[in-house]
Amino acid sequence: MKFKLFINPNSQEIVEATVHRKSDFSTQLEQFVLSNGNSNIIPAYDDKDLIMLNLDNIIMFTIIENKVFADCKIKLNT
């Protein structure tokens, strides 16, 4: 699987996924995008706790062994 993120403040936002078949994951992804399209906050886990991250504070996403990590500008209080 490949992932590409293009940031262009002058472009209309669009999320496009190409999958082999519809699955629970693709359905959940569709629901997430449609329900959070205007939100600047995403849910994430800080160890075992669910937290909400503001996209403005995220510097970079890294994927290691199928886990997504977010590097943030600010240190989160846990």
Structural overview:
It is built from one helix and four strands; from the N terminus they run αββββ. By secondary structure, it is of the alpha+beta class. Helix content is 17%, strand content 32%. A hairpin with a 2-residue loop joins β1 and β2.
In short:
The protein has 78 residues and is α+β, with helices and mostly antiparallel strands. Helices cover 17% and strands 32% of the residues. A hairpin with a 2-residue loop joins β3 (58-64) and β4 (67-72).
Task: Please give the structural blueprint.
Blueprint: H1 24-36, E1 41-46, E2 49-54, E3 58-64, E4 67-72
Antiparallel strand pairs: 1-2, 3-4
N- to C-terminal distance: 33 Å
Q: pLDDT below 50 for ≥5 consecutive residues: which ranges? A: none
Class based on secondary structure composition and strand pairing? alpha+beta
Largest sheet: 2 strands, antiparallel
Widest sheet: strand ordering: 1-2
Residue-averaged pLDDT: 82
What spatial form do the alpha-carbon principal axes imply?
A: globular
Count of individual helical segments: 1
Count of extended strands:
4
SSE string, helix = H, strand = E?
HEEEE
Oligomer: single chain
